[in-house]
Every structure is written in C-alpha cells, then in structure tokens.
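TASK: fixed-backbone design
INPUT:
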C-alpha cells in the first residue's frame, strides 16, 4: 500500500498507524443492561444523577471536615496516669471517703458493707467481668435483637460510676462523660446493620419482609431510631451518599446524647426535691458538656 500511486489510499493507511480517534456521543447513554438509549428524558436524568453525585461528594467532604474541626467543649489536658485502669488502692481510697448510711446503687448495698476490705477485690473483679463479658454480649445483641433497654443494666453502670463520684477528693477528673449503655447499643445498630448492608443481602431482605408483615419488630424499631437521629433519608437506600460510617455513627450518638441530657435536666426540674438536691443532680448529670474525654477504665467504657 505504501507503494500505491493513489494519495487517498496512501494517507488512509498512514492514519491507521496512529491512535484511533474516538467520537464522544452526547446524544445517547448506555444503560445498566447494556442497551443504548436516545431518549432525551433518560439522558437528562442520567446527567442529573452524575452531576449530583459529584457535587454531593464535594459537599460531604467539606461537611466532614467542618464536623471534625467543630469544638463543642473546652479543651482540657489529660495527664498520663489517666490512661491506666483504676487500681485496687484507688477503689479503697474512694470507699473510705464514701458517706455512711448511703448506698452506691449496686444492689442497694450500703457503703458500710462495701468498705469491707475483702469485698474490694471482688468489686474490682466485677468491673473487669462486666467490661470483658457483659459489654461484649450487649454489643453483639444490639445487632441481633435490637436496642431493648435492660432495666438492670442502666442502674448497674450508674452504681459503678458512683464509686468514684462519692468523693471529689479522690477523683482524678471531677466530672465524667458517661454514655448510657442503650445509646451505645443503638449506635452499634446503625453502624453494623445499616451502613454496611446492601439491599441485595439476605439479612436486609428478611428485615424488609419482617417490616411488611409484623409490628413492633426489630426493623420497625430501627426505622424509628434512624428517624429520631435525623437519618431517615438513608434508611431505604443502599448507599450513605459518600458519608463515612464513623461519621454517621458519631452524628447519631451526638443527637441521642443531646436528647438524653435534655430529658435528664427536665426530669430533675420536675421532681419534688430540695433545691440543693436538684443542684447536686444537675451537677452530677450523666452528660457533662464541658468535658469530652474520660478516663479509660474497665467499667466506664461499657
């Protein structure tokens, strides 16, 4: 062909040696099934979806960045000794400062009984067992049986915390930020069951079927939970619109903690207590806005 006397044939063959030119067709789209559609409505809808996804990713990255930089509390310095487990000596010191004829909340045992030296090691073992066994089971159950509030668990944890709230003389942090166990379980539900579950998975299909035929079920409770956390727009979708699972779980926790704090303050105000007793409970509320970091112990993070 290079010896051809026809210039058109010659240059046609030469052009084949370079990169092939591709023509972008903006008047049609390839659908998910592989067919080509020239429908103008379908094309406009596809362009709208693609540009919306692009714009949403940019917005979500900005939103997460602003959320991480948001400061809602005063920064505090945490000494190195705050990272260790509470020792037996600290428990003994706290109990020595406990008021007489008062109960700390654990089975209503009075402080006089808990001051017994032989019981202190039992208490420390109890804290460790709670963290290593009960907490793990509750985390698992949150994704299997839902977010049922266990009446015995909430006051149990409150009693454990009161061991170190009985005296400000031995507290290394004067205020604690306590996440109620039921809020922890609800965050686990959102993180484990929705944010990482596609609509084509069997568990998801079972939950949909469960929602259609029964009432007061796991799936319906979850739907109401996400609505309360302002995440109802993500309930029926198989994507999180670019938001990370950690971001959504933290957002849901902040919403629930804020509601819990408001309910706590409202209940304290409505109960017929002495003014000093109201102030005491208001000061010792389970959520303290000024502090966001708590000492890592075997029983506080449950």
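OUTPUT:
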């Amino acid at each position: 062909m290079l010896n051809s006397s026809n210039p058109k044939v010659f240059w046609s063959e030469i052009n084949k040696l370079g990169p092939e030119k591709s023509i972008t067709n903006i008047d049609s789209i390839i659908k998910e099934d592989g067919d080509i559609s020239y429908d103008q409505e379908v094309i406009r809808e596809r362009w709208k979806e693609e540009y919306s996804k692009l714009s949403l990713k940019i917005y979500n990255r900005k939103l997460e960045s602003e959320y991480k930089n948001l400061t809602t509390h005063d920064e505090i310095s945490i000494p190195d000794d705050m990272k260790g487990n509470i020792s037996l000596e600290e428990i003994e010191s706290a109990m020595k400062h406990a008021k007489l004829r008062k109960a700390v909340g654990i089975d209503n045992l009075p402080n006089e009984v808990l001051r017994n030296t032989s019981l202190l090691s039992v208490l420390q073992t109890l804290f460790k067992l709670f963290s290593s066994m009960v907490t793990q089971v509750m985390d698992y159950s949150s994704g299997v049986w839902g977010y049922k509030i266990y009446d015995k668990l909430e006051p149990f944890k409150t009693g454990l915390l009161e061991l170190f709230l009985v005296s400000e003389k031995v507290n290394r942090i004067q205020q604690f930020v306590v996440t109620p166990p039921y809020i922890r379980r609800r965050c686990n539900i959102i993180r484990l069951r929705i944010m990482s579950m596609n609509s084509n998975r069997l568990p998801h299909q079972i939950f949909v079927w469960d929602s259609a035929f029964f009432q007061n079920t796991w799936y319906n409770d979850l739907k109401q939970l996400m609505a309360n956390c302002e995440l109802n727009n993500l309930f029926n979708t198989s994507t999180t619109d670019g938001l990370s699972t950690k971001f959504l779980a933290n957002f849901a926790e902040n919403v629930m903690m804020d509601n819990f704090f408001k309910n706590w303050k409202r209940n304290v105000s409505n109960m017929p207590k002495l003014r000093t007793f109201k102030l005491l409970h208001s000061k010792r509320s389970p959520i303290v806005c000024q502090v966001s970091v708590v000492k890592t112990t075997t029983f506080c993070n449950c």
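COMMENT: Strands lie at 29-30, 36-37.
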